[in-house]
Specification:
The chain is of the alpha/beta class. It has eight helices and seven strands, in the order αβαβαβαβαβαβααβ. A seven-stranded parallel beta sheet has the order 3-2-1-4-5-6-7, with helices on both faces.
Length: 267
């Protein structure tokens, strides 16, 4: 990595490069995963994609390998299952000979009035969004710490920074776990900073992807009007932030949550 004093033509490109690095994306399909995988591959990283729906990961892996000329693999993995996460980490390390980057993009939600949420629904969301994130980070760190370097990125949400009234959303287990991820990021960042492993998070706002696509159009219009930029975010805007945080360009950044929301949480 460059020292501060080694400014020269091309230094920023070198810091941003991920050439030859091995990355694992959990929750490895869908619009956000596709944008993240493309961003990492565009900077030279080999990418493993893992989720419960392995065929969708395989389709994306094939497209990334074809379009960017990097190595890819696809695996089945339930992030709430410790053994499956361990296997995904081991398979990534075996395929690429290293594991430099972990992105936890897996997520679950349960919709409904809080007083009506069954305990099974609460546990499902906690198991995936919070416990699964801890398992994934722990397993990645067990590979990264002996190497003395690595970047872990957790995907939180502006829902972890704000609250919804019932007319906008009833997803208390989701927002609660996303808030917990922000503190988990800080704690793990503090624990591993001296040993070379950085832990950061992103908190996307309303994006043209995932859960937002299933929301009724009238509610989407209201959400858009609440954003100071008066538009929804695009997955490529998430991808660019992710590529920065897992690269050496962010080598002095750990324990932080980057909010990507068009100004939504400014209000």
């Amino acid at each position: 990595m460059n020292e501060v004093g080694s400014l020269r033509p091309g230094f920023l490109a070198d810091l941003s490069s991920l050439a030859g690095r091995g990355a694992l994306i959990l929750g490895g399909h869908g619009e956000l995963a596709a944008a993240m995988a493309a961003a990492l591959a565009d900077r030279g990283a080999n990418v493993a994609l893992a989720a419960r729906k392995q065929p969708l990961c395989a389709d994306l892996a094939t497209a990334i390998a074809r379009d960017y000329g990097v190595e890819t693999i696809a695996m089945a993995c339930d992030i709430a299952d410790e053994g499956q996460v361990q296997a995904a980490v081991a398979s990534t390390h075996a395929a690429f000979g290293r594991l430099d980057i972990l992105i936890d993009n897996a997520g679950a939600f349960w919709s409904g009035a809080p007083e009506a949420i069954p305990l099974a629904g609460w546990r499902k969301v906690v198991d995936v969004n919070l416990t699964g994130a801890f398992i994934a980070a722990r397993e990645a760190a067990r590979v990264m710490l002996p190497a003395g370097r690595g970047a872990i990125l957790l995907v939180s949400s502006t829902g972890g920074l704000t609250s919804f009234t019932p007319d906008m959303a009833e997803i208390v287990p989701y927002t609660t776990t996303k808030a917990a991820l922000i503190h988990l990021t800080r704690d793990l960042g503090a624990q591993w900073a001296e040993r070379g492993v950085r832990v950061n998070a992103i908190a996307p706002g309303q994006m043209r992807s995932g859960l937002t696509l299933s929301i009724p159009q009238d509610r989407i219009l209201r959400m858009r009007e609440a954003v100071p930029m008066k538009r929804l975010g695009d997955p490529v805007e998430i991808a660019a932030a992710v590529a920065f945080l897992v690269s050496d360009a962010a080598s002095y950044v750990t324990g932080q949550t980057l909010v990507i929301d068009g100004g939504l949480t400014l209000r």
